[in-house]
Amino acid sequence: MTIVESWFIPLDILMIIPITLAVILGMIFLIVISIDKTCHTVPMMFTANRLLSAFVLGCVLLSLCVFTLINDLRQVQYQDSLCVFRGYMVYAVGAAQNYSNAVEAFYRYVLVVYPSRLYFRSIRFQALIIFTAPLKVSVMKRMKCRSNVVVSTVA
């Protein structure tokens, strides 16, 4: 049995409160965006994309903080089978959050640099960028370049 410092518990609670608030507000905003027809525009699509990634990140962080609080209350220090998975999910969802920011920055860039090309502003093109670019990244990771010849590997 490991002795856990007593000041860990208030810090755990202080982390859980704002994360819970962020998850609840994110869920409310996503519901409003999905219900209200005036919010079905391209800029709001990016806002919903960012809110969704923030909501998922909040859920992952909330599960991590609740797990930490439970172990601090029981004064147990061990690594369970999901500990590594929770840590991976924080990094993966954080990368998705950064990706949604990059997609919105790309949209703003296209708006300024190519204002006359309406295809770049369409919902279809932006949805294509949001949903297919992670697929491209995962496919490109499986390809190896060797002396100007691309060899695909099947996993």
Automatic annotation (TrEMBL):
TM regions (residue ranges): 13-35, 47-70, 118-137
Record keywords: Membrane, Transmembrane, Transmembrane helix
Gene3D superfamilies tied to this protein: Rhodopsin 7-helix transmembrane proteins
Name listed for the protein in its UniProt record: Uncharacterized protein
Source species taxonomy: Eukaryota, Metazoa, Spiralia, Gnathifera, Rotifera
